[in-house]
Amino acid sequence: MWCEQAVLNGTVHGDVLIDMVDGRFTSIAPGSAQGAATRLAGITVPGLANAHSHAFHRALRSRTQADRGTFWTWRDLMYRAAERLEPDSYYRLARAVFGEMVLAGISCVGEFHYIHHQSDGTAYKNPNEMGLAMLAAADAASIRITLLDTLYLHGGLDHQGYSPPEGTQRRFSDHTADRWVERVDDLDAGETHRIGAAVHSVRAVAPSDMSVVAQWAARGDRPVHCHISEQPAENEACHAFHGASPVSIVDDAGLLSPHFTAVHATHLDADDVAALARSGSTVAMCPTTERDLGDGIGPSRQFVESQTPIALGSDSHAVIDIFDEARAVELHERLRSQERGVHSAAELLDMATINGHRSLGWSDAGAIAVGNRADLVTVDLNSVRTAGTAAAEGIESAIFAAAASDVSNVFIDGHCVVADYAHTDLDVAAELSITIQELMGRD
Q1: Which domains occur in the chain, in start order?
Q2: pLDDT averaged over every residue in the chain
């Protein structure tokens, strides 16, 4: 491939000739003639990583906007969608959602997966039927996946303690942490799959069970994620029962480490931020979901100042646009601090690429470098959004002007999966329309 512009090690270079063999970058030469190479017009960036996804939440887009409500009323509608899913319908919906991600330049997704069992809480004949559907859907959409298989044991937490799962929550529960270990041990990683772990939250998992997940993940240096302090009510319940913050609880349980990612981490105090920094943990911020649900603005400045890496996720898929997530980190911080330029465009691109891949266990992706996985995302610089932007400021153009719809071409592991704005294998819009109508049409 020959790129008009490409981002190499955080800097824009022109006329970049790139060779890919067996899914890896083998040579990268800026300032080269095009010759017989295929031209990629615009700016080409590394593959983007979506560090936090709940695929089935895509079915809720626009359906939660008619009334005011709260995070908790939104959750009720989410449970209704979760109740209806079966392995085949979940596969088809996830395939379409992952296809939408590929169209947006996402080469790797972290699927925070907690719908494990049948609607009455009993296991499928294969207890991993739903997880296998997620892996197959990712394959069909040509995206890499880290399946963050999630431990979810309790229905909630208040000052009196944990409550049992009820209703749809029974689909989420393995009943004990040991049964969760037994189930996930039967899931196999592969060339385009990683199997990681997740603790749903302090609301759904007691500290002693978190320790079981921490030990399981540590045996294989697997990534482990957890929703942390997404809502003030979560912090209040945790303090009321445990006498400590959610970060303190997961720290005492042994979860914090360079393989750990705190998802959201919106409502933290200084001690929480310091604990994440000391452990080398990552934070996955999901700004479009956090603003959609009215969750609040996370302390991104403090994360950067403490050298805590930030990754990005689309979470509930209010939109699937990692460029939007990246610029929102900066723009939300501007609203809070009334200062501009807290996070540079290059730093935001790192959040969208290399930081996200590392959070998901892919240390060989997220940068255009020899030996890395050959992921390329080309952004059109002549769309109605990007036309007239400065050629020398291509990273700023991609982060602050472009949208997912400006992604013209995508290569994942050396394979062309988006050509001229279209997925090479899927009619993504048609599949989204059909599968979501089948799932939600009764409402």
Answers
A1: 2-46+368-426 (2.30.40.10), 48-359 (3.20.20.140)
A2: 95
